[in-house]
Amino acid sequence: MNKVLIIGAGGVGTVVTHKIASVPEVFGDILLASRTKSKCDAIAAAVGGNRVKTAQTDAGNVPELTALIRSFQPDIVVNVALPYQDLTIMDACLEAGVSYLDTANYEPEDEAKFEYSRQWAYHDKFRQAGLTAILGCGFDPGVTGVFTAYAAKHYFDEIHYLDIVDCNAGDHGRPFATNFNPEINIREVTQKGKYWENGQWVYTQPHEIHRPLNYPEIGARESYLIYHEELESLVKNFPTLRRARFWMTFGQEYLTHLRVIQNIGMASIEPVTYQGMEIVPIRFLKAVLPNPADLGEHYTGSTSIGCRIRGVKDGQERAYCVYNNCSHEAAYRETGTQAVSYTTGVPAMIGAMMYLKGLWKQPGVFNVEQFDPDPFMEQLNLHGLPWNELHRTDPETD
Ligand code: NDP
Predict the structure, then answer these.
(1) How far does residue 161's CA lie from ligand 1's centre (Å)?
(2) Does 141 sit in the ligand 1 pocket, CB within 6 Å?
(3) 132 lines ligand 1 (CB under 6 A)
(4) Residue 141: is the preceding peptide bond cis (ω within 30°)?
(5) Domains of the chain
(6) What percent of the chain has pLDDT over 90?
(7) Cα-to-centroid distance, 211 and ligand 1 (Å)
(8) pLDDT tens-digit readout, 96-120
(9) Is 180 in the pocket of ligand 1 (CB under 6 A)?
(10) Hey, how many other C-beta atoms are within 10 angstroms of the C-beta on 124?
(11) Residue 394's CB: how many other CB atoms inside 10 A?
(12) Are 287 and 323 in contact (CB under 8 A)?
């Protein structure tokens, strides 16, 4: 029977563990390990049935983690800790001879900059070891890459324009909270904007470009062009793309808080000395902000994330949209977390399933769009993230 080791017991870890435990025909023994064991124990208790074993680990410590992996001998490690630990977990997987999956691109702790080069550099090591590493298998990155691969496979000869649109039309009732780890989230949304056009990256000031976009069953929401990590792999894997952009909705209240946080220095990752102690302002801020894993109870509304693509098929211009809407309330009823954790955790489970079924098993390091999208798309419909598609003849997809 297959064995899986999950690392990280936050909002996403909660969903992955529930979902993995719900598919016993694919996943046999489950070990959930994280920095704080009590959080793993609470998740295991919520899943019930003695289905999940737990352990304490520091995923930044390669020898310690290698020993844990060797003692449990999983078939795959699902990394839903923080992006800071990606490389040490990949190192431990190589040491112990186990395949790897994550949902977020490696980012050094002391520099708010993520890029795939550090993880792609492991390709030969994984290939030589006969192991698979699946990168960025959440929703975005993750499902957005699978959606793009599905569109390219079935509906286009060439894709030319890609807009990934990420709307959270939910309301958690708090003046300010982030939907996943606050430190990672604030680092992501305060950086400069960036998109791909005509073979090069175009840079913008943070949130400089914005416009209302229409989201299915939601309506118009102000959407901001930001840089998001899947753009880097998608423009590499789909070289016919002439333009690729990522849009995310933000409410005015969120942006006002964010501006204040930045202006007063609380988004800084540079340590300051306070009463003789070194403190990283954004870490302190995380400690006082609501825990994203606790937002679910009062969250209403839904997320809507999709891809809007234009290109050509048989010499004709075509436009196509594919998206999922996910209800915060439904996600909470099923797993006790909100839709942002849910939409990340379900694809991570499906990615691990694809590997264990031998469908996405290839030696080396890969982004999700490099695999066959069809079996993954099928499983999305079965495990809580059904998708819809719209075929358009008009060139505008907004
Ligand atoms: P949380 O902060 O809620 O959870 C992170 C977990 O990792 C915590 O349990 C934390 O432990 C644990 N952890 C942190 N450092 C270590 C360490 N050194 N060793 C072991 N465990 C550690 O984050 P989320 O659940 O919101 O997010 C998890 C991941 O998912 C992040 O990488 C995030 O970027 C990614 N993500 C991806 C998305 C996508 O669509 N692709 C969307 C949303 C998130 P402790 O409890 O002790 O703090």
Answers:
(1) 32
(2) yes
(3) no
(4) yes
(5) 3-135 (3.40.50.720), 143-338+382-397 (3.30.360.10)
(6) 91
(7) 31
(8) 999 999 999 999 988 878 889 999 9
(9) yes
(10) 11
(11) 8
(12) no
